[in-house]
Amino acid sequence: MNTPTVQELLQDASREVRSIMWDVTALDGPGLAAAWPAFAAHARDALSAVPVPDAATRLLIHRATGPRYSPNRWGPPVDAEPDPHLIRAGQAMAAVAQLLRRHASPPRSPEARHDADVVCRDIAACLFVGSHATALGLREHATRLQPARPGTRFERPDVRRAVRGATLAQSRRLASELATFEAHTAHYLARPTGRGPRSRPAHFVDHDRLPQALAQWEITAMRVLHAQPPSVRDLAGIAHTEQALLVHAAVILDAAARAAVIDPRDFDHQIRPRLQDAQAAWGDVAATWPAQMTTPTPPSLAGVQASAQLHRALGQITRDGNGWAAPALIAQRVHLVDVGGLLRDAVAASGSRAERFADLPSELTRAGHLHAPARLLAAMERHPSGRGTATESATRTTDVANRRIVVVRPEQTADATAAACRLGRQLTSLTQALETIPIAKPSHALVGPSSYMHETTQGVQHANRAREKVQLTRDAAVLR
Amino acid sequence: MQTAMNDQANQCLAQAWSLLDRAEHLARQGVRDETGPSLWLLAANSILRARDALEAIHPDAAHADGVDALPDGNCQGLVRAAVEQLASIPQGHEPAGLSLALVYLAEAEHEVGGRNCS
């Protein structure tokens, strides 16, 4: 009889824990909670059996033991039928632990170390999904339970049956502990692998990812920009993301020009300079919303997530490890005609975001939403943009001396409005140029080494020369 | 005991926020001064996301008083120090959603890896 390998057993375990999530409407919180301690113990044994675990793995082993003191490290036992998927996953983990203890020896080569790391990650991934599903089930279970009212609820057998072995407090506490454990596991899984370029897998590009990320970004950015009031952090985040979008667009269109999807001369003379100017202008707009300036609203997690998704979707096309991908590689990864069209639409759509940025300064200041340290405002007055928008000294010396946070007045945001208006003009010019460039079929013969790094360097440095003039942010940060 | 643990968790979050704020500033300087400025822009953005995610899940992190003096160092060191701060939050006192901030922080760590700015 063939004995399953460690990899096969881990696949079984992974399938079992993932199958819990197949129907999230039918999660059995108490059943999962009843099975969790044994599953966690088997997974911990499997992790411990991997020879010479690193510090992060040792920490995860420690966390998987459970947060409470013995004997019940994951809380009192839940009197419910244990979830069968989690039981089977635990059995697979126990078999993994047994196999590793019997056969595994300390890794002596980079390949063996990599294999050991893969096993640790697979076990951690099972723990992550298992803890997530159990916490989700318990939270749902907790919301179903009404707080116990003696004499009313406890006398009704149907309500008692609904508890199914896990009380409200027990469910909430274990769900919270599992959420904590889930966070640690996510951190463990997100750590760099330390794998060398030799073992890097073939790069896979999901072609639907960029359109989806762009659509999500446009919806989220507009929603955030029209919040009443938006967070200043979000405004800076959106502007920086738009700036990054244009950096990526320049890399992709550069590859398109080298593959003759667009005319290389048109790209060099019409598109590239306008992309650099627009990108610089987004940087200037971002710099007018420094971190010390606030509205009553905290940053939106949805905005951060949409930005991250967009960066990742673009990065899977344009990045190679920690640097830029070569134009030839980009041409292999995506259909440049399609992506070129997508980016053209995205640039056109970002014009509406720029318009909103032009309206926001006066809107926020007139409503009294915008606050800033007096020292920051004084520093802004000392470093006007040099474009004729400098204000009269409007910040009181006593506010500066006493480090007060003051309401920003409309005239103190004139630079922000001016920067957004300049951006609008740059984007209009870029959009018009992009619309005049015909997109042809690619010719791979023309793909050559990139001059992009040099050109983009010029663009970003131009952005920073302009930003030095604005200088809103960090001089005053030191004073804070 | 419980209050002390909460205070320690809040202090760790505030310190991590400040470290990331400083690291983002250094990365933006990298855009200005270093080679490969467009990559520094992406690194700065990734740090920004980690910082903002932290503030979104725990708004007080950005407005806390009594944050210790920030260590000297490059932005790689500052991001690592932020990771250590979050790892030292007492178990059971992590704010909900910390896992998301940790994912962004790991991305930022990867993005600044091998780059020097100070």
Total number of beta strands of chain A: 4
Large-scale geometry of chain B: elongated
The helix tally of chain B amounts to: 4
Helical fraction of chain B equals 55-70%
Number of spatially distinct domains of chain A:
2
Most extensive interface: pair and counts?
Answer: A-B, 50 and 46 residues
Structure characterization notes:
The complex is a heterodimer of chains A (480) and B (118). With 480 residues, chain A is mainly alpha-helical. Chain A is 66% helix and 2% strand. Chain A has helices at 6-20, 29-49, 55-64, 84-103, 110-144, 157-163, 168-190, 209-225, 232-258, 264-287, 301-318, 327-333, 336-366, 374-382, 397-401, 414-436, 452-470, 474-479, and strands at 319-320, 323-324, 371-373, 405-407. In chain A, the strands form two sheets. A two-stranded antiparallel sheet of chain A has the order 1-2. Chain A starts with 5 loop residues before the first helix and ends with a helix. The relative contact order of chain A is 0.10. Residues 154-162, 196-200, 386-391, 442-457 and 463-480 of chain A have low confidence and may be disordered. In chain B, helix 1 (2-33) runs antiparallel to helix 2 (37-57), helix 1 (2-33) packs antiparallel against helix 3 and helix 3 (75-87) runs antiparallel to helix 4. Chain B starts with a helix and ends in a 6-residue tail after the last helix. Chain B has helices at residues 2-33, 37-57, 75-87, 98-112. Chain B has one domain (2-112). Chain B is built from four helices and no strands. Chain B has 118 residues and is mostly helical. Chains A and B meet through helix 7, helix 9, helix 11, strand 2 and helix 17 of A and helix 1, helix 2 and helix 4 of B.
